[in-house]
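assembly run, all chains below
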Amino acid sequence: MSKPKRNGFFRWTVARRKVLWAYIFLAIPIVFFAYIRIYPAFFAFQMSLYDYNPLAAEQPYVGMENYEDLWKELNKRRSVTKASFQNTVNYVLLGVPVQLCLALAVALMLNEIRFLSTPYRILFFLPYVTSTIAIAWVFRMLYQPQFGFFNVMLQLLSLPQQPFLNSPQQALPSILALVVWQGMGFSVIIFLAGLKQIPRTYYEAAEVDGASRWHTFRYITLPLLNPSIVFLLVLQTISFLRMFAPVVAMTVQGQGGPLDATTTVVLRVYREAFQSFNMGYASAMTVVLFVVILIVTIIQLRFTTRSIN
Amino acid sequence: MQTVTPSNLFKDQARATAVGRGRGDRKYRIFSYLVLTLIVITITIPFMWMISTSFKPESEILRRNLFPVEPTMDNYSEVITETELPIWYKNSLIVAMICTVSVAFFDSLAGFVFAKYQFPGKRFIFIAFLASLMVPTEMLLIPWFIMSSNPPIPVGGTWVDTYWGIAFPGVITAAGIFLMRQFMQGVPDELLDAGRIDGVSEFGLYWRIAVPLSLPAIGALSIFTFLGNWNAFIWPLIATSRSEMFTLPVGIQQFSSEADTPWNLIMTGASLSVLPLMIVVIIFQRYIIEGIALTGLKG
Amino acid sequence: MRKLLAIFAVAVIVMSLGAVALAQDDVVEIEYWQYNFGARIEAMDMLIEQFEAENPGIKIVHNSDIPWADFTTEIAASAPAGVGPDVVTLFYGWIPAYVDAGYLVPLPEEPFSEEYILENFVPMVANAKFEGSYWAIPTAVRSLALFWNKDIFAEAGLDPESPPQTLEEFQEIALATTQYGDGGQDVLNITQQGFTPTMQGQIHHWFREVLIRQFGGQSYSDDGRTVMYNSEAGCEAFRWVTEFELEHVTGSFDLMDGATNAFVNGDVALHVDGSFRVGTIRGNNPDLNYGVAELPVGPSGENHTFGSYWTHGLTRRAASDPARIEAAIKFLEFITTPEAGALWVSIVGELPAQLESASDEMLLADPILGPFSAGLEYASATFFVDERAQRQVLLDAYDFVRLGGMDVCDALDEAAALEQELLDDFWSERE
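ok done. output:
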């Protein structure tokens, strides 16, 4: 190629060349996303319109029947599907606030201390790197009646033993405890990073004004921490909406019991698709879940990202 | 929000260390120590229990003692010699490495392109990538399985029970591309233009200018990718049907059978799967904590 | 960049090298799948070895790594992809669902003619015709019997050699052998369990096919299409089961990691289970001093037991290729002979499905396997349309009584309604 002589021509080729290179660099990611992420999503949506049985040779088209069935199940007085949706909502409503409040409290305290600060940060973070499956077994053992750690402690304190995972009332919070234990460290560090972003001058000004600790928190820390809060809110809500592995690993035969008290939408999807072979119905459930996640995310982003003065 | 570059992140940190000092409320600090210590102890209980049980002989498993009366290494030798745990270990390591290397390369390259190039369809492609984050993975399991049994590139036959088959859904991630784009926006354009004038190729600009400047972010991304794939469960469960291809979580889940829950072996397997990562975290803690801070700032 | 390309090229070459097919033309390779259970794998490996020695043209790939809980998952994932087993082992109660989907092909007339099956196999296998065909054939079958711990009997001052003969004696012994720690008669104070109804295990079968008959009722109408256990007899039988935990406090599933493990570990006096548990005990606690007897008789004085089996079917995949199906049939015939059954019982503890070896004198005289073998004569197998869902229904009913404080009869009514829905769904599709 001959050397460009005029400036305009030079710019034009550089721009062209850059566009070309952009596409070359993106070629593999584009093919990957189209083929591994986007196309299968449409495929799943398509499956939800069929009576899709993975064992069968032919899959009959049934239109909206799977969605109608789902609607019927949700309106029954009692059904596993209904329980799975209710439990999932409970996981979100209970898990997200507990997780965020606890993490925020810990972060505020960690931000205050100097001595031992690093080891404490590491300890808070350690559970985050554990495998859910492995650690769920540990929690299952801790919860055992008679010989499990928690009940041994209760006995030492002369308190009545608790059934934990064996009780329809306590099982869901018991599983949640594992999730909070495992996920808290991550939130703590996000909050710590957020706290570091708040300019010190704000606090100095507040101190000069003689503002109380609560006032400082309410009118400086909380609003300025908004980006971190929104980020965690969205992230945690989505992850609780997709609860699966802890429930499989912590309930008897992975059934989400006792009495369907801990089963979740994703666990139902898995069971329906791979054990009852109703993949059409299971796909309909994932489509509904997808829509729910989408709506929740949009609402949260709308209502919580306000500009900060 | 301002763009984060490596330099101003460290500035933030320097500034932040001073925050606590301003409000030197002693009582509050003592209270903080007390509460934090209590929580830290609670957090370590499962680890202690897991490790202590892994040293208990079978006869002590269903007893109330917290620590083994007669500690034994039998569980470890049994798990290592009589189960396939060492193989699962290797498998997890290989799969996690494939994903980590691939994500570190492709995500940063794509992030670089989205941050520094203008081209038709950029917005559309970027949004299409991000939209994939909204789709629950569970929805894709069946299509993925069908795909891996009749792969688009039929080199090597089916993907089922291969490392590639376990790894492929995670070799490029939308979240990683997003993170890298945010980060690479902080790479000065002047540097790139200067490189172009010096005749550096476009790939060279990425490889020799953008990557070195983004190492903290790439490091953080790599660590999280590794962790995520090391602990992944549902896809490896479906993508493997032979135990010599199981990853650690899949293998540990199978210790418990229809008839039997060998708690001591499960706890040993759990300890072995968790401990190396804990050591990695302790060694690289600074990097990791900063890395999460970076991810978190992205909202 | 060049370096990168080189790496890529090497990777492609390595991948394609791995792809070079190793298959030789004159050998047919077929796949056999079963779930992971130590003794079953060992037995099948021996059978495969014998088979391959006799049939050098056939190679069997034995996949037995899948955990029991994930077995259907793997099959469901493999089928749409056109891979998976040619000969598959499945629970007899799953057959209707697999047949419905067209996953199984009927057993061929040669060698599995109706006369052959009727003449040679135990009644519950011979009765397993569905939609006019036989779809699967087992190597071995199982029945329920009573396990008792002789040491615990002796400690409680009972004769370790005389197991309970009736349900009343059963209850008395359960009460006499339960021991509590400090703090009195409470489930959480139990240190030694008399008897624990493990619904997740075999107790729902015991209720469905045994107890309810002994209390004078039946679980299903004769055509198998109507649920009938929510009757007076059903209530009585179900109450009898639930009272062990709720009234007599002789044990709980929640304790000691389940009654099955607890029995194997020597912490439970009485246990109702299948013959396959013999293998578990041999593997996990060979020193356990236990005995096996036929199930106790109830008020009616009749003997009943529940029979079930894991059975082998031929898949659509095998049928797609004449060479494969031929090999698969040969293999299936080989693993269901009386000789295979005899080998199976010696390793797994499951009883041979062929009458010739099931009614073997030695087997009937065996102190451990004899009672199971005797039970085969009067065993009944429930016709399940969806075994997992139907099991869950009764499990939930038990938990509603146990954890939710629901009345026994109400819980059964609810269970019956749910199960009836499953049956109706199934039958309505084929009319």
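Confidence is low (pLDDT under 50) at residues 1-23 of chain B.

The first helix of chain B runs from residue 6 to 16.

not gonna interpret more than that til we talk
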